[in-house]
Amino acid sequence: MEKISFAGIGFLFLLGLAGNGFTEETVTNRQILEKLNSMDVRIARLEEGQKGLKEEIRMGQQSLQKQIDDIRSLLYVILAGMFALVGFILWDRRTALAPAVKKIDLLVEREDRLEKALKEFAKKEPRLTEAFQHAGVL
After folding, report:
1. What is the spatial distance between Cα 119 and Cα 107, in angstroms, rounded to a whole number?
2. What is residue 1's DSSP assignment?
3. What is the distance between the alpha carbons of residues 70 and 32, in angstroms, rounded to a whole number?
4. Would the CA dihedral through 9, 10, 13, 14 be positive or negative?
5. Helix-strand-coil percent breakdown of the chain, rounded to 5?
6. Which of 6-15, 24-33, 91-100, 116-125 has the weakest average pLDDT?
7. b/e sequence 34-55, b meaning 16+ C-beta within 10 Å
8. DSSP-assigned letter for residue 21
9. How far apart are CA 91 and CA 82, in angstroms?
10. DSSP letter at 138?
């Protein structure tokens, strides 16, 4: 069963009065009908305005979502750049230290050979043995 609004009941009531030939009431009924029609027109305008507002809100939300996506993409780029920079620093540090480590290894090896040679010579030379003992090497 369809619902009938109060405006619809009023309209039917006014039509019934207009059909009875009451001239004064007919004029009043026409005025009421004109007011109802103008209200319908204003309501239609309001509905159109609401549709426009809904569309603007939807477009604003889309714009905001695009900005959020752009910021998220920028954050990913920044993070990738930071990881690349840390990787480069670690690689560069290794490559920069490699020659120094190699040089230290060579010097330690040379020192060991010199120490061994001096200890061998100290076995034959008592003064060198005394000097080593005094220095705490032997």
Report:
1. 18
2. -
3. 56
4. negative
5. 90, 0, 10
6. 6-15
7. eeeeeeeeeeeeeeeeeeeeee
8. T
9. 14
10. -
Helices (H) and strands (E) in the chain, counts: 3, 0
CA 21 to mean position of chain CA atoms = 73
State the amino acid at position 109 in one-letter form.
E
**Mean pLDDT for the chain overall:** 84
Q: How far apart are CA 122 and CA 27, in angstroms?
A: 140
Residue 16: left (phi > 0), alpha (psi -120 to 50), or beta?
Answer: alpha
Place of tokens 């009908």: 33
**Residues 19-39 pLDDT 10s:** 455 567 777 888 888 888 889
What's the CA gap between 102 and 124, in Å, rounded? 34
Which residue in the block uniquely carries the two structure tokens 């309501």?
Answer: 43
Domain ranges of the chain: 6-135
